[in-house]
Amino acid sequence: MEKHHQFSLWYFVLALAALFAAHALVSAPQIETLDYSDFKKLVKEHGVVEVEIGTAILSGKVRSQALATLLPAEKAARLERDKDGLRRFATVRVDDPNLAAELEAAGVRFAGRYENTWLKSVLGWVVPIILFLLIWSFLLKRITAGAGGLMSIGRSKAKVYVEKSTGVTFKDVAGIEEAKAELEEVVLFLRSPERFRRLGGKIPKGVLLVGPPGTGKTLLAKAVAGEASVPFFSLSGSEFVEMFVGVGAARVRDLFQQAQTKAPCIIFIDELDALGKVRALNPMGGHDERDQTLNQLLVEMDGFSTEAGVIILAATNRPEILDPALLRPGRFDRHVLVDRPDLLGRQQILEVHAQPITLGPDVDFRALAGITPGFVGADLANVVNEAALLAARKEKPAVAMADFEEAIERIVAGLEKKSRRLNEQEKRTVAYHESGHALAASAVRHADPVQKVSIIPRGIAALGYTLQRPTEDRFLMSKSELLDKLAVLLGGRCAEEIVFNEISTGAQNDLQRATDLARSMVAEYGMSEHLGIVTYERQRSPFLPVDGWGTTRQEYSEETARAIDAEVRELLDTAHLRVLDLLRKRRELLDTMAEHLLQYEDISGAELQAILKKSRALGEGDGHEPAA
Fold it and tell me: 191 and 138, same structural domain?
């Protein structure tokens, strides 16, 4: 591997010091060995034999006998002895207009000496100027490096992976079989385009991968390039747009020019929504830089032919804000959904990520997939990594099933904070609060089974938690299931009211979630008998929890808004009374669960079932709400 030396500003400091030292060395006068007054004394006494007169220095030879009689021994010793027995001297020239006459009167041979000063000029002026120009050029390159340099600011910033250097194939992609099957056609076209051209078919110009964050859209695009063994241009949509007008359009042109030279190849644009948002009228006039960049992308996609073997892949998790011109046939004419994996998909993803991990004999990926509903590929990769770290921290020889379960709990509920000490009253309140959630979930018919109840603080603000795990993947929920979900959310607050005759701030998050759920039932799902089958909310982003346009415009009257608020309030009040009645009938069971939590700090799913079974055996109730 070639070794790259990191440039440092200290190099310039050392270069300047060397320059000044050389300048001082060249321009420094000869060492003065004789005072000018002593020189004049020797001239008068005829002790000087010859003199060379320079612009700044007088040098020459004197007789040793004269030195011995006219000067002290220490001064005479400073003069170098010549081979003819004379002594050489040097003294600084003084402005003395009578010097030539005195030398001539004393019979001294003297002559002028021409000194060439070009080297001093070069070192004193030219070299510093060149050096400072180099420093300025270096700093300018560093400043403009983020934009690719002033001369290359319009060039594409795409990272190019040639042939199989992406290191990813379809074997590394699991859990999204439908999306993988859609893209296999692209791989076949890049490998054998004649197969499609023979029948006159045309491959789609662009393939848009849409799905929630972390589902593997970028990984899937790299796998396509790895399978086809073609160059892979990878860049983000935000890399096109800069502060300089026209830069984004220039980079789009440069990207497609590079792709044409390396065809067949794949261009992958990640986070396309950063570049392809819906174009809007600019109230200030003129054209927006982002619109110019998008326009250039549309032109380039129209201008090239798939016969050259250039395929465009793009990924986004906000398809609802993309410009319709991007999505029409002839541009991104194929949309591939990369959705959250199902049960089998999660099992396959866990197996792929666990390949380099040393596993214990009790690890069951099927069971782990069952308790991770809603997890995407990135979440599952994090689960495997966290489990390996936990096992390594405990110095285990292999990663066991318990490590995976603890890792899932850590990701879902947050990090345990055993150092956060609660006083006895707070701890008792949390115990009854979580027991209320668990008992409500165990009593209603459509709630997910409780896997664990704990009063150990976790995360940022959670003082306890009740962990529920669905038994299967669900894609639809009925009104009765949503009402049972409301009951579970209000179980903690109702337990506090029953036991302590007052409420605490611990139910804030429960109330917020319950209110959002009730409002969705009324305003989105048409589950209100008074308001009818009308939806009053704009459709939100299918993959992100925020609205696609940031804010939701109210498209109904104030009277309807009041009716919606009243229906939401009625749903919550009804659920509140239902849970109060449910928990009062099971007060002894509620006390038993709370005391168990105060003693052991958590209850597993099996322990909860044992408590409920014991309660049924004692005739305290079957744990389930009677059928309506």
Answer: no
- What gap in Å lies between CA 40 and CA 34, rounded to an integer? 10
List strand residue ranges (DSSP E) for 54-158, in order.
Answer: 57-62, 80-81, 87-92, 109-112
Amino acid of residue 416: E
The C-alpha torsion from 405 through 407 and 412 to 415, rounded to 10°, is 130
Residue that finishes a domain, picked among 337, 354, 383: 337
71 plus 182 within the same structural domain: no
Whether a cis peptide bond, with omega within 30° of 0, leads into 264 is: yes
Give per-residue pLDDT as tens, 258-286.
Answer: 888 887 888 888 888 888 888 765 455 44
pLDDT tens readout for residues 292-303: 888 888 888 887
CB 182 within 8 A of CB 334: yes
Kindly report the backbone phi and psi dihedral angles of residue 357, in degrees, each rounded to the nearest multiple of 5, phi listed first. Answer: -95, 140
Residue with tokens 């010091």: 17
**One domain for residues 190 and 96:** no
Per-state percent for the chain, helix, strand, coil, to nearest 5: 50, 10, 35
Q: Kindly state whether residues 39 and 93 are assigned to the same domain.
A: yes
Structural domain boundaries, residue 556: 424-617
Q: Is the pLDDT of residue 133 over 80?
A: no
Distance separating alpha carbons of residues 44 and 102, to the nearest angstrom: 8
Residues whose CB falls within 8 Å of the CB of residue 548, separated by 6 or more in sequence, listed in order: 318, 320, 321, 540, 541
Spatial CB neighbours of 211, under 8 Å, sequence gap ≥ 6: 179, 217, 317, 337, 338, 339, 340, 543
Cut 0.85: pTM above it: no
Picking from 614, 603, 616, the residue whose alpha carbon sits closest to that of residue 437 is 603
Do 137 and 255 share a domain, yes or no? no
Report strand pairing: 57-62 vs 48-53: antiparallel
Decide if 434 is catalytic.
yes
Catalytic residue, from 227, 409, 434, 625: name it. Answer: 434
Distance linking the first and last C-alpha atoms of the chain: 75
- Rounded distance between C-alpha atoms, residue 622 and residue 348, angstroms: 39
Provide the 10 A C-beta neighbour count for residue 344: 14
The alpha carbon dihedral of 519, 523, 524, 530 has a sign of positive
**Considering 393, 413, 433, which residue would you say is the last residue of a domain?**
413
How many domains are there within the chain? Answer: 4
CATH of the domain at 218: 3.40.50.300
Q: Are residues 103 and 210 in the same domain?
A: no
538 located within any domain:
yes
- Give the C-alpha separation, 270 to 129, whole Å: 46
Do 332 and 350 reside in the same domain of the chain? Answer: no
Residue 150 located in a structural domain: no
Q: By three-state DSSP, how is residue 139 classified?
A: helix
148 has a pLDDT exceeding 60 = no
**Same domain, yes or no: 29 and 82:** yes
